[in-house]
Structures
1.
Amino acid sequence: MSPKVRHTGVSGHTPSPDQRIRGVAARQRDLVTLTQLRHAGLTNGGIARRVDDGVLRRVFRGVYTTSQAVLSPETLGLAATMACGPGAGLSHYACGTLYGISRFRSSLIDVVSPRKRTLEGVRVHRSRTLTSSDITSIRGIPVTTVPRLYVDFADVLTPFQLANVIHEAAYENLSTSLPEAAGRHNQKTLAKAFELHAQGSAGTRSPAEDAFLDLDLPEPLVNVVHLGFEVDFRWPEQLVAVEVDGGQHVRRPYSRNADARRDEVLRAHGYTVLRFPAKAVLYRGSEVERRVLDTLSVRPAP
């Protein structure tokens, strides 16, 4: 019979609590939970001394780091999920950023959890319907699945904003299936976003485009390809198209050339093309609104 293997550290000695802690932390971005510290053999007093000595640094309640460096956003996200306990995952803005499919950001870290938590700098969304099938991982960080992200985003985004998230997910070969959202009050937003995606809309791509849709105008087609070009806003019956140009976009020669070609093709097919700087839409929306309405009124459907 083979002898029992004794787990030892350096030079045949049993690992010290600090060695155990470093081993655990090395597998999870230099993070360790209070429970793991206790399992490593530390008492509350031992933990407090290491915090005072700078060996451990508190990140969130119940979560510490062994690193002295500034923690990355991804590491902070992992720490937030650890602080919320088993079954929790990054959600909403933080999750969309990690997938690389959302332009929306927040100063808070969003976490969905089956239990209630209050953490500084973290927005915890308690969900009684959250299951293990709603959670996956990216680079070792628990996150909601893409379908669950759509459902959560429908609570905070417009249909056109969510349509852009779906569009970016399709580009990344991620799920673009309409998720079930029984009992959720956001079902209309969800359904509208997927309808827009099915119609070829890329949704809104910028805050200026969001602001344009907030103007009191008839609803246009938004970022749908027409005549080989994606057009920001288009009213096909009135033959009117609107482009909203950002600062960097205007300064790039190739962007200006592409814009000129798009405008030329649209005008050749009978369109009136209006262009507005993003700043005009954001800060002088009433002027933009009047000009578009005037143009629509003189371009009636044939």
Note: The chain has three domains: 1-71, 72-186, 204-298.
2.
Amino acid sequence: MESLKDKVVIVTGSTAGIGEATALLFSKYGCKVVITGRNVEKAKDVSRRCEEISPNKYKNLVILGDISDDSHRTELIEKTLEHFGQIDILVNNAGFSIPVNVLSDGFISAYDRVMDVNLRSPVLLTRLALPFLISSKGCVINVSSVATNRTVNESFVMNFT
């Protein structure tokens, strides 16, 4: 994929699962990847593996933090621009679920947390990145996935975002 060579890609939630695989694939195609997540050891491991498979041996940028934190989202954009000078692709991948019954006492706090990470954060991060994506004629990729082995009432919070 020659057209991806040298593109700057932010992949949220890139320390595990779909985000990790996405970061590795973009690295394989010669992109400069921004690794994000909350776990420092996993981030270092993903970054190392991305650098190993990068045809240009690019050094990735690792930015740790909670994607639902406003200051982290701002830092993510600012540090990417400082380090690479542009943003070409934003992959909104970070997300999670909380298995909770809709009738339980903790439902509202679980609902708020899941909506904050899975819906609010991608919208606000995209809003911050958009001027730079327009400038680079870049794109936004929003990722969603669902897996459950629970009945409807226990998986409600997992599946509504």
Note: The chain has one domain: 8-148.
3.
Amino acid sequence: MLRSIGGVSAAGIAGLAGCIGGGGSSDPFVVQVTGGNYIESYEDEVFSAFEEQEDVTVEVNQISDQFDGYEQIQSGQSDAHVTITSADTLYMGSSEDVWEPINTDELDNYDKLGDTFKNPIYDAGDDVHGIPTVYGTVGMGYNRDELGELDSWEACWDEANEGDVTMQGTDFVRVFTTALYLGMDPNDIEADGSYDDGIEQIWEAVREQKDLVSSYWSTGDEHVRMFSQNEAYVGEAWGGRIKAAIDDGHDHLDYVIPEEGAYGWSDNWAMVAGIDDDKRSTAMAFFDFLLEDDVLIPLAEALGYPPTTGATSDVIESLGDYESTNGEQLTFLDPGYQEDHTDEWSEEWESIQSS
């Protein structure tokens, strides 16, 4: 049963904790995880089984989101030993020595990870600081009844679809997807060796597309409504949300990772720097445990996102974000590259929107 420990995040959100199982240890292994379906899935599929296998007591700190969790750890308001992170918070903590390096040679199951997820671009430096578990995508949703089968971002720039296109209204996503469409690396933009020429080609393509776009969306609910109610026929989408809409009866919809690729993200577990040897050993056992097929498959099914190891099931292969090459069609954001250009991209995107 969850019990309050009185922790308060930097945002003023009360922390929650729970002891899973009955180990009764006075020195529990503290894990930090987001609430809702995440904490429920981990409690049901991971924590109790890990307690039983390792004879430890797991205490769960619930956080509102991964930035909240990062702020708590960085400010000393959390006693977590391991935490779930996004690409951004994994990168931030790797850069700021908040996370303990992980010796992957000590993990029996590390080689199960797809190559895409081994020391990825969002894990700063040469050391490994995060263990990816599941991934998601920002691919292309579309109305199959109206447009037939699609497999390219070209449909989002096709003048025949004027007024029926919707795209995510975030500056870096506009840069990211457009770079993929143009055949550029979103983490190393250039044309003929020039960043300036490359980014200008991207913004020109964004301007051209603007005339085709009915609306730029900012939330999952918003873009699902647009697709479900035929306010848009094609555009960027979140695979899990489109799959849920299809399951709700909107079977005119479909979702694809275009042939040019798509934006990918992953959940990653990190170990807090400075924990003692005993808790470090438990953390390493926890990471290895997460990558076991009989643990990760039911966890991925419960979360609704495919696993990073390529482990699969009928349920996993039916997920909207499932990508049969285990992430090889996806490109992951380099947060450092984004940070270097964020002011410039934001300013140009605002200018385009207001023009």
Note: The first strand starts at residue 2 and ends at 8.
4.
Amino acid sequence: MIVSWILPMVDVVEGALTFSFTDDWQVIKYDETLWYTERMKRSLKGVDILAAKENRHWWIEIKDCVGYEPDNLPRLSESPPTSVTHTKAWLDAQVFAEQVKVLRKKPFIIDEVMQKFRDTLVSVVVAHREDDGELSSYTAPAISGQGLVIVLLLTWSPRDYGRLATRLKTKLDMALKPYGLIGFVVNEACRVPGLDVAVNRTA
């Protein structure tokens, strides 16, 4: 008799990436849930994946930039692009300057992650208050002391990835400090303590 030790998997697909969890995980593609798309999407942003196992939770935001590094490089810098700086300087000299605000089109990636984290936090609190069944397994971090880790999965060319990831993790941890949380910035290898997931590129 042949005994198979291969556990059934739960797959979550985001673009060209497939995230495979063993079936002892509770996993949901949050920004595709009915709760989010029908109730929250108009006013709140959301992280990509909510994952839970043994009273611990991981909220995962995915930025797949492989092949599009030049287009995405500005969002990895906290400083605004030169074009924004020049536009602000021009605006300051105009009589209507106090009525107009110049914003960068793509925010700093850590600011974006934090906005999605905060919006998701608000959303799951409301889901708990309204006893929404779809999110019932994922609301504990917002209402109890269950552990929560924020993960930014960033794919990038290997040559520059290590340097960028180290800097972004420092920024993410600083942003999460008021919430008493820590974050991780990882690539497809996804080396996050306790987060057992295989990430594969399917296209």
Note: Residues 109-129 form the longest helix (21 residues).
